[in-house]
Amino acid sequence: MKKTFAMGGVHPKDSKLARKSAIEDLPLPATVAISMAQHLGAPATPVVAVGDKVKVGQVIAEPSGFVSARVHSSVSGTVKAIEPRTDLAGNLIPHVVIDVEGDEWLPEIDRTPDFKGDLTLSAEQILARIKDAGIVGLGGAAFPTHIKLSPPPGKTAEVLILNGTECEPYITSDDRIMREHPDEIAMGAKIMMKALGVGRCFIGIEENKPEAIAAMRIATIRFGGLVVVPLKKKYPQGGEKQLIDAIIGRRVPSMGLPIDTGAVVQNVGTSLAVYEAVQKNKPLIDNIVTVTGKCLPAQKNFRVRVGVPYSYLLEAVGGAPAKASKFISGGPMMGKAIRNLEATTQKATSSLLVLTEAETKRRAEGPCIRCGKCADACPMGLQPFLLNKLMRLNRTDEMEQEKIFDCIECGCCLYTCPANIPLLDYIRVGKADVMKIMRSRKK
Q: Where in the chain is the domain with CATH 3.40.50.11540?
């Protein structure tokens, strides 16, 4: 019997429409706009000026805090502007805008297809290269990777876990990189193992990706300490807490961190980026993005430079059909609705999903029938029906007692509710209120 996490979860339909689409390089647009806030933490600070000439891989912004990351030019050309622009959520964020002129890379970046399996760097040198390359987690949160690979004092890493679950419906970018770049991902894992000082790495892949499982198993043969773990298909298995539970059977404590279990979790895309940074001197200037939706004329997995407009991605698959109603960055369960299609891709962009009105229309909300399905589905063991009621009554103290801050906002409660109550919407508001109170209490 294949492993999975112990508590809750749902089984949404795969809809992996682009699984057969090999990775293609997206042609360069005329202009890119690179956000300074595309990682968790403080936005980066630009170090270029309007009129500067830049090359692919050149540093254009430096981190402005401990939790921050370098930003590099994804194209060659001239800096046209440094200005606030609207991101996909509608927020004004500083961007460096570059007019594309050719495709000239920094000479120190190794662009050959040759695989590099020798590693002579120390753990400190590895972390320095990862930091210099601006690598962030590509599983969603975009947390700076060099920090995650440096456990805080008193915490010890025992095992590395690579996340290849890709449990969100529609998205196939991780599936494709595991099938097309398994050796590089495995080598990236060995590099991170050395940085952490651990001897074991488990690569968790859901059973609906048999080709990826086979490819990664072959790739790990040459390396010691790497084990591929096939997992039962179950959402949200890609969450760090659920993946740790599924693979090593340990639970992250309430308000705790994954490192509290001895595990460090990294996405397979992050592992590929680490390989390219350490072995090829390539900063994080592109990623694999799935462009998909049942209404689209084509399904694609593109290698996309950072800073490309979402509208340009749509044009690459024939444009948005008239019946397209909603555009999502990410998957349908935890992705973010795109308010502005001229917003640009970031380091951790994984997918552009296009849905019709029929696919997104919410049914009328009815009264709670006390069925308990939301509680059964919650992977964190919460009682969403109760949290929803407490939120509507503004009873923040009781929401805190019921551990609303443990909610990972996966949407399982909303997915299962037969009364169509927007549970997650209310819980998100309540969670934000409680977290605000907790932060003010600490101050």
A: 1-9+106-361
Answer yes or no: is pLDDT of 443 > 80.
Answer: no
| pLDDT tens digit sequence for 213-223 | 999 999 999 88
Whether the model pTM is above 0.90 = yes
DSSP sequence for 285-342 = -EEEEEEE-TTSS--EEEEEETT-BHHHHHHHTT---TTEEEEEES-TTT-EE-S-TT
**Rounded to 5°, angle at Cα 40 from 241 and 248:** 20
Using DSSP's 3-state secondary structure scheme, residue 3 falls into: strand
What is the CATH topology of the domain spanning 1-9+106-361?
Rossmann fold (3.40.50)
CA-CA distance, 236 to 167, in Å (whole number)? 6
CA distance 67 to 142: 11
Those residues with Cβ within 8 angstroms of residue 260's Cβ, 6 or more apart along the chain or in another chain: 155, 252, 253
pLDDT digits (tens, 9 = 90+) for 83-141: 999 998 888 999 999 999 999 999 999 999 999 999 999 999 999 999 999 999 998 78
